């Protein structure tokens, strides 16, 4: 089992589609093991988007992530990092496949509804950026036998 980080960006909060987006992850079979609403500070964003800080458009990305609070979620499942990235779709909502969250809800590169960790290593770093150990819950997924074969998890 792997745990990965998802952020429901202000584009999801403001458009009132949080429930629909969260529902997609739930219906897939991923278990929500952490979730809260927070404001993203300048300091956290600089670290979270460190690969973009030098870009001329970093300022607009930062502003966009501070339009409202966001929801941070920890999602657990077999190969959760890859599964969640696939459900999320490619960065540019205009290129993202229909059926993905970005493909169905976004027509923008920036206003693309969700962030999802891109590797197991990144997921662990990003989860510890937004959650303390006691905010990630360990509880039985009661329908697990209907979600996986018993040798899959
Ligand atoms: N972004 C943008 N313009 C770009 C590249 C990225 O506005 O040319 C924004 C977009 O919201 C994206 C985020 O910065 O989701 C992080 O970029 P990254 O390349 O890590 O894409 P992601 O991992 O979110 O698909
Ligand atoms: Mg990224």
Could you characterize what this model shows?
40% of the residues lie in helices and 17% in strands. The protein has helices at residues 10-15, 18-28, 42-48, 58-65, 80-88, 101-105, 120-130, 144-147; strands at 2-8, 31-38, 70-77, 114-116. It has a single domain (2-40, 68-146), classed as Alpha-Beta Plaits (2-Layer Sandwich). It has a 4-stranded antiparallel beta sheet with strand order 2-3-1-4. It has 153 residues and is α+β, with helices and mostly antiparallel strands. Bound molecules: uridine-5'-diphosphate (UDP) and magnesium ion. Residues 52, 57, 61, 91, 109-110, 112, 115, 118 line the site of uridine-5'-diphosphate (UDP). Residues 52, 57, 61, 91, 109-110, 112, 115, 118 line the site of uridine-5'-diphosphate.
How would a textbook summarize the main sheet? 4 strands, antiparallel
- Kindly state the percentage of residues in helix: 25-40%
CATH C-level name: Alpha Beta
Beta percentage is 15-25%
Oligomer: single chain
In round numbers, the mean pLDDT is 98
So, CATH architecture? 2-Layer Sandwich
Please name the defining characteristics of this protein.
Alpha-Beta Plaits, 17% strand, binds magnesium ion, binds uridine-5'-diphosphate, 8 helices, 40% helix, four-stranded antiparallel beta sheet, 153 residues, alpha+beta
Task: Give a topology summary.
Blueprint (H helix, E strand, L loop, with lengths): L1 E7 L1 H6 L2 H11 L2 E8 L3 H7 L9 H8 L4 E8 L2 H9 L12 H5 L8 E3 L3 H11 L13 H4 L6
Antiparallel strand pairs: 1-3, 1-4, 2-3
Bound molecules: uridine-5'-diphosphate and magnesium ion.
């Amino acid at each position: 089992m792997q745990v990965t980080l998802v952020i429901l960006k202000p584009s999801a909060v403001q458009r009132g589609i949080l429930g629909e987006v969260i529902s997609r992850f739930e219906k897939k079979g991923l278990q929500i093991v952490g979730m809260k609403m927070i404001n993203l500070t300048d300091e956290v964003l600089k670290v979270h988007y460190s690969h973009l800080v030098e870009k001329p458009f970093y300022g607009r990305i930062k502003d966009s992530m501070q339009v409202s609070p966001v929801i941070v979620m920890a999602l657990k499942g077999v190969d959760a990092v890859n599964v969640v990235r696939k459900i999320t779709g490619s960065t540019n909502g205009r290129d993202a496949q229909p059926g993905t969250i970005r493909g169905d809800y976004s027509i923008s590169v920036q206003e693309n509804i969700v962030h999802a960790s891109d590797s197991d290593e990144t997921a662990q770093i990003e989860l510890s950026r937004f959650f303390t150990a006691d905010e990630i819950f360990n509880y039985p997924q009661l329908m697990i036998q209907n979600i996986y074969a018993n040798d899959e998890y």
